[in-house]
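Lecture notes, continued. The same structure-token format from the folding unit now serves as the input rather than the output. Read the line below as a description of shape only.
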């Protein structure tokens, strides 16, 4: 009996033989595919523990697999965001990218129920194709694919980028933060929740590529979904970038709690780089960051072109005038 308590939550799959053994196991196995330099996805461990207690040990299994150790995972090598592969009966039945706890929980429940029906009634499994990205250019393709409509939204208001980071999203703080943003007099022109790609974040933070914390920062920003917002402001005389910087507070949450306890980073940040929110530093940053993370939108000619070198989340002020045109 004691052996079950001592059993590791996630079995480490380090050889092809262990991989084949995993494929032959009865029930559903959720495999966390990770990179050796950043390690497994720790934020989901508590969810997996909860699910294991909820459904028992018989049909639900969890595993870890380093992409560099197994040829079958070659296409996942070098990718920063966590990838969770769901296997049943030796077949891939589902896939989740990013540490999206609600989606993982939903997928586990749905796939486990489906596998129970397969085992009890002999039904055929619904198998999916492995859709790992084959070209990093896909990282920058967020155009809508459903339909030929061209719904255009334009604005000559000053705008800036706001990002609710994965640490705040995974803890369910998105709605609270958005409410505070709106109560502070900001209008949201565009918003989107998605997992950012490693290629995006390496470009986004390329000015920090030589810093020791660079890989940790990129890994954090790819660890789960972020909520991306294009903000404008109709109230007050303060420009939108300065106003957003003020609402965010100092970058370091500890400093924010001392100096601006009502700021977002003071309330929702924990420590660097887990400071809950990001904002553009000045007008050029706003333009570059919005162009990178909302590539399907076009900007007015009132702001000159700037190279795609993006600055850090420091203080500063400025604004970008944008004309938002949603294209297919």
């Amino acid at each position: 009996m004691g052996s079950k308590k001592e059993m590791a939550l996630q079995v480490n799959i380090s050889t092809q033989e262990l991989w084949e053994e995993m494929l032959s196991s009865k029930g559903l196995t959720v495999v966390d595919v990770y990179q050796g330099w950043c390690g497994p996805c720790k934020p989901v461990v508590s969810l997996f523990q909860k699910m294991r207690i909820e459904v028992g040990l018989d049909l639900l299994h969890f595993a870890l697999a380093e992409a560099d150790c197994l040829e079958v995972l070659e296409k996942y090598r070098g990718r920063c965001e966590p990838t969770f592969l769901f296997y049943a009966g030796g077949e891939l039945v589902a896939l989740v990218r990013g540490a999206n706890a609600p989606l993982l929980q939903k997928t586990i429940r749905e796939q486990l129920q489906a596998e129970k029906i397969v085992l009890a009634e002999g039904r055929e499994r619904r198998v999916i194709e492995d859709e790992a990205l084959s070209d990093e250019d896909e990282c920058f393709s967020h155009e809508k694919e459903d339909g030929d409509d061209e719904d255009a939204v334009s604005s000559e208001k000053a705008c800036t980028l706001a990002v609710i980071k994965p640490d705040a999203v995974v803890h369910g703080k998105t709605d609270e933060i958005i409410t505070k943003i709106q109560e502070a007099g900001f209008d949201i022109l565009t918003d989107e929740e998605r997992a950012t790609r490693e290629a995006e974040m390496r470009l986004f933070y390329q000015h920090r590529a030589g810093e020791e914390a660079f890989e940790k920062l990129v890994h954090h920003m790819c660890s789960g979904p972020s909520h991306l917002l294009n903000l404008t402001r109709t109230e007050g005389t303060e420009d939108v970038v300065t106003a957003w910087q003020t609402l965010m507070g100092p970058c370091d949450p500890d400093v924010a709690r001392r100096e601006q306890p009502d700021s977002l980073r003071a309330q929702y940040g924990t420590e660097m780089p887990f400071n809950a929110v990001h904002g553009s530093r000045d007008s050029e940053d706003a333009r570059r960051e919005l162009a990178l993370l909302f590539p399907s939108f076009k900007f007015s000619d009132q702001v000159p072109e700037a190279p795609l070198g993006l600055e850090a989340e420091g203080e500063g002020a400025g604004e970008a005038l944008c004309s938002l045109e949603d294209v297919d």
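Point for the exam: The CA atoms of residues 112 and 249 lie 44 Å apart.
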